[in-house]
Design a protein that fits this description.
With 432 residues, the chain is mainly alpha-helical. It is 38% helix and 4% strand. It has a four-stranded antiparallel beta sheet.
């Protein structure tokens, strides 16, 4: 994928004559604007055509663009659709990207060494890659995931959408899946779906996952091998060996290669990227720390890790460090089985028959529910003054009724079975 730079196009055609090429949609849209076709309606039609997975939706978007502006439709038709339209991409490369964000990420990765002399720049890039490859090799030894984290999150999102699909089995691996007003054919043997999303991305779409679940299989087994842990380990298995410094280089009899002569221009050298003519400038931050936005609910001020709402399936997987979550046996969409909570039963106590105050006192110390119920049932008209811990206390560790016959005193006063004797009996029985 490139930005349609003429030098790159010629070089790729010479070095890789049979390689399929893609053009970045963002750069195409920049040229689209420079040609005089601007406006939100034209951009929306162009995006719908580029991001469509099926040819039917692509034709609808192109017809809308033609109705908006005939000249814009003619300009866009001059570019081969297999280079920018998602539905016409080659399925050999398991990615549905229409922009060259991967190239931009690498460009930022080498930004600090890119402006240095050629030899220093190559050494800097080599050192960065050497450390990165070693770090990724070591991380796979303790990794608990079987599918790479990014694509495991995409798989969880498709599982959530599979709840709204209705699969009908036609053959051993052939299914008809209905989703809303659309019906697609899913072939589990060749890993294809009529929506072409599975064909392009390598991740089972929601239609395929509904058929897989209906057949009592695992969607993880149908993910492309390029996103499995085995291929990830194999990608970083080769080692980038260190290179000795210039002091250990072997002296050759051939003449030295001098750097090309260049003229240093006056003034300060430009380091910032030249912005496009119609590029919208980014808003300037007034503070050093930007506002945090939750990826789960969309509100500001907190992250998804502390969100009070139920997490999305992909975010729940990320929070669990991409370890597969246990699901309910009823085949629910994204519901995960919560961890079992251990409940500690309160000791069973039976208060001694007496006034309502005695029952209420026993309930407050040994067990509120049982004590209140017993106290109210035995003597509902008893005064509250005698209930705060007065009277006899039963042993909290006894499961049966107490055999004590200690009488309770008057309901109005503080009787002989008062606070000190009751609390002492309780602490003695509890072992404190």
């Amino acid at each position: 994928m490139s930005d349609r730079q003429k030098g790159l196009l010629n070089a790729v055609n010479v070095v890789f004559p049979k390689c399929n090429q893609r053009f970045c949609l963002r750069h195409i849209y920049a040229n689209f604007q420079n040609a005089g076709f601007r406006g939100e309606d034209l951009k929306k039609c162009m995006d719908n055509a580029a991001y469509a997975y099926s040819e039917h939706k692509f034709n609808i978007a192109m017809n809308d663009l033609r109705a908006e502006c005939q000249e814009a439709w003619e300009w866009l038709c001059q570019i081969p659709k297999k280079t920018w339209a998602r539905h016409a991409f080659d399925t050999n490369c398991k990615t549905d990207l229409v922009v060259n964000n991967l190239s931009e990420v690498f460009n930022k990765y080498v930004l600090d060494v890119r402006k240095k002399p050629i030899r220093t720049m190559c050494d800097g890039i080599k050192d960065k890659q050497m450390m990165r490859w070693h770090r990724n090799r070591e991380s796979t030894k303790t990794a608990r995931w079987d599918i790479t984290p990014h694509y495991s999150e995409k798989l969880e999102a498709e599982k959530e959408r599979a709840k709204y699909c209705k699969p009908i089995q036609v053959g051993v691996n052939l299914w008809q899946v209905t989703s809303g007003q659309q019906t697609h054919v899913v072939n589990l043997q060749v890993h294809t779906c009529g929506c072409r999303k599975w064909d392009l991305s390598g991740i089972p779409c929601n239609h395929a996952i509904s058929a897989i679940n209906k057949g009592k299989r695992k969607p993880e087994d149908y993910v492309s091998k390029f996103f499995k842990k085995e291929f990830y380990v194999a990608a970083y298995e080769p080692m980038i060996y260190p290179v000795p410094g210039e002091h250990d280089w072997t002296k050759t009899p051939s003449p030295d290669i001098d750097p090309p002569a260049f003229k240093v221009k006056r003034g300060r050298k430009k380091e910032k990227r030249i912005e496009g003519k119609f590029e919208v400038p980014k808003p300037k931050d007034t503070s050093r720390m930007g506002t945090i936005t939750c990826g789960n609910c969309g509100l500001q001020g907190h992250r998804y890790t502390s969100c009070l709402k139920q997490l999305k399936p992909e975010l729940a997987l990320r929070k669990n460090k991409h370890v597969p979550l246990a699901r309910n046996s009823n085949g629910g969409g994204g519901a995960t089985t919560p961890a079992a909570r251990t409940s500690h039963a309160a000791p069973t106590t039976t208060p001694i028959a007496g006034t309502g105050g005695a029952g209420r006192g026993a309930g407050r110390v040994a067990g509120r529910g049982a004590g209140r119920g017993a106290g109210r049932g035995v003597a509902p008209g008893a005064a509250r003054g005698a209930g705060k811990g007065r009277g006899a206390f039963s042993d909290p560790r006894q499961s049966g009724p107490s055999t004590s016959t200690a009488p309770s005193t008057s309901a109005a006063g503080r009787g002989a079975g008062g606070r000190h004797s009751g609390c002492g009996r309780y602490f003695y029985a509890s072992g404190n």
